[in-house]
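Chapter summary example.
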Amino acid sequence: MSTARSTALPLPPATGAWREGDPPGRRAWVALSDPLPLESGGALPGVRLAYETWGRLAADGSNAVLVLHALTGDSHVTGPAGPGHPTAGWWDALVGPGRPLDTRRWFVVAPNVLGGCQGTTGPASAGPDGTPWGASFPYLTQRDQVAAEARLADALGIARWAAVVGGSMGGMRALEWAVSRPERTGSLLVLACPAAASAEQIAWGTVQIEAIRSDPGWRGGGYHRAGPGGGPHRGLGVARRIAHVTYRSEPELAGRFGGEPQPGEHPWRGGRYQVESYLDHHAATLVRRFDAGSYVVLTEAMNGHDVGRGRGGVRAALSRVRMPALVAGVGSDRLYPPAQQAELAAAIPGADRLRIVESPYGHDGFLIETEQVGALVEELLGQFGSGSSAR
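The structure predicted for these 391 residues follows.
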C-alpha cells in the first residue's frame, strides 16, 4: 500500500458538531420560549438557534437581509476561520463594507438551520433528558426550519425582511419563506434549487443516508458519546464523496484530473487516482467539522422539499410569490439542473426571467462564482430592494 494512503492522521471526533463549552466565535443565540410545532406532528422542545449578524438594524427594521446556507454550511457567512469557526466564511466576498451585501447599509442575518450542528438545536444537542438527541431527533421539513427562523426574526424585531437570499438547501428555505410568509419577504433571490425534489435527487440523498446508517459507528444514531474515531465517520465520508461528485461537473473533473494517478502513487499497487485523492480530502475535512446525524436529518428534509405539498401543487403555491424575485441556476449544474429553475422563474409572478450563472464548476458554482452572484444580489437590492440606511 502506498505511503499516502496509509499515513496515520489523528482520529476524527465522533461528531464534528459545535458543543457546549466550545468557543462561541461570532455566534449569538435565541432560545424559543415554547416548543416548536412540527409539520409531522408533535413539537420540538428546548430549541435554540445560533446566528450571526453584520451591520446595524435600522430603527424601523427595514434593512434586514436573511441569508440561508446550504447542507453543510452554517451561520459563518463571512469572516476567517478561528476558535468556534472551523472554516472561513462560505460567501466571504458577498458580505461586508463595499461588498454586494454592504453592511454599511444592510443588516445581514445568517442562522444555522434547525437540525444543523453549528450551535442550533440538532441531533448532537442535548435532548430533554440531558443526553444528545441522536436518532430520536424528530423528522424535520423545510417548513419547520422556516418556522424556527420566523421565531428568530420575531426575537430580533424584524417584521419583514428586505430580502431573503439562499442557494441549494438555502434556496429551498428561501422559497418556503416567500410562499408561506409573503408578507414578511420583501424580495427574493433563489439560486440552484428546485420547487420540489425530483426522484433522482431523492435517490442521491437516500444513498448518502444509507452510507451513514450502515456504518457500524452509527450505533443506531447513539454515537455522540463515543471517543475519537468512534462515530460513523467512514459512512459520513462516503456520503460526502457521493455528494461532491454531484456538486461538480464532469468536464471540470475531467479537465482537472482526467484518469491520472496521484504523483508517486500507483492505483494497481494500492495508490489513488488524483480524483480519488480529491474526494478523500473533502471527506476527511467534513468529518472533522460536521455531525453525521445532522447530515441525515437535513438530507431527509431536502428529500421532502415540495413547495406545492398541501397547497394545490407547485404552480398554485408559487403564485403567492408576488414580491420582486430573481431566480438563477448554474449552467453546468447536474444536481439541480437549470430546467428546474426555469420552472420556478416561469411560475413566480414576481420573477421576470431565469438568470444563468456561467460556471464550469457545476452546482458549486453558486458558491464559487461570487462576482456573478454578487451582481444578482446588487440587482435585487438596488433595483427591487426596499431597505433603508441604518440609523
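To summarize the output: The longest strand covers residues 48-54.
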